[in-house]
Structures are given as C-alpha cells and as structure tokens.
Amino acid sequence: MADAALRILIADDHPMFRAALRYALGEIAPGAHIVEVASQSALEAAIGSGEAFDLAMLDLMMPGAMGFSSLVYARGERPELPVVIISSNEHPRTIRRAQQFGASGFVPKSAPAAVLAEAVGAVLAGRVWFSPQQAERDEGDAQLADRLAQLTPQQMRVLLRLADGLLNKQIAYELSLAENTVKIHVTAILRKLGCHSRTQAAVLVKGLSLEEDGGELHDGVGGLS
C-alpha cells in the first residue's frame, strides 16, 4: 500500500492518539503525507483548503463537534473523500449510524494495528469496512441524513453554530460573514430542514449526538500497537 503521494487527514483532539495513529499509518502507508487537526474549526479549514486528501480518519469527539456533525460536514463538503471513523464508542448503533451518515469505515480505538491496516486498505480500494456486529438500520437517522444532505457546506457550518446557541452576529464573526448573509443562510436552513424556528433546528442537530457520550473516551492509544 506504500504510496509517497498518499495524503491522509487525521482529526482527533488527543495528541497521544494522533501520534499513535500517525505511527500506525506510517507502517501501513510509508511515505504518506499526514495532516493533523484537533477541532471542528481546524477540520473545516483543512477540508476547505482544497488539498486533495485520499482519506480522512475522524474521531467523533472534538471541540466544536457534536457527535456525527463532523462526519456530516466532511461528507457534505467533500463527498468524494472517504472517511473512516476512529472511536472509543463501539456500540453497535454508533457503528450503524456512522455508516448511515456516510462513513466508509469504522475502527474501534481499541483495535490492533492489523485491523486498522485491513480497514484502511479496504477503504482506499473503494470498498467499505465495518464490523459485522451492527444495529439495524434506523429510518429516523436515514431521514435526518437526507435532510442534512440538502444543506450547502456553508449552511452546515452555520447550523452547527446555531445549535451551539450562537446569535447571528456571533456566527457572522466566527465565520467571517456579513450578519445579513447569516440571516439568509438561517432562513434557507429552516426551509430545507422543514423547521419553524432556530430552536427546532437546534433540536434536530441534537439528533447527531451520541447516545453514550461517556463511552467516547480517549483510552484506545494502546490498541494501535
């Protein structure tokens, strides 16, 4: 799988796990160019930079993210970019939801390096890689994914900040937009999502949260040895 041109994006807020994942990927794809980010805003900057990544390795819990929001954003901005979720939350429904929201693979942080290599190889070959132990398809998640897919990347950025309770002027400042532009985006977001208020839209985004946030711990570093 060695390819000096391979470009991989690692998104995880834990420095030790990023280091372990970088080492493991170095064994899997020697010479690969690896970019690391540690927050939702940094992920947005990296994906929005136009760099031609071949693969993204994404944690579900980073500052500024809400459960699967980073995955939904990445898929909306760069639908051609395969995303592999690397998570300590190994609940079957979490794995199934990752697949429904567009991930190409899911690797538990406790998995050995051989499993990571298998998953990365499969995804880079254009296949998907998921544990056979998954929950049944959830129609509610499928409908939520379809509704969110209607949003543009910029609208998704606005929605995530709206869900955090930010006012239009705060969103405008954070995204370097005119306040009136934010208002236009909010109106379009509510229309596309079929929501009548900002509160209703925020509640909808909460559907991206993990059921068991307590299970999303950064304790899987040793699994990549």
UniProtKB/TrEMBL annotation:
SMART domains: HTH_LUXR, REC. Keywords: DNA-binding, Phosphoprotein. The modification 4-aspartylphosphate is found at residue 59. Gene3D superfamilies: 3.40.50.2300. Residues 144-209 form the HTH luxR-type domain. InterPro entries: CheY-like_superfamily, EvgA-like, NreC/VraR/RcsB-like_REC, Sig_transdc_resp-reg_C-effctor, Sig_transdc_resp-reg_receiver, Tscrpt_reg_LuxR_C. This is Response regulator transcription factor. The lineage of its organism: Bacteria, Pseudomonadati, Pseudomonadota, Gammaproteobacteria, Lysobacterales.
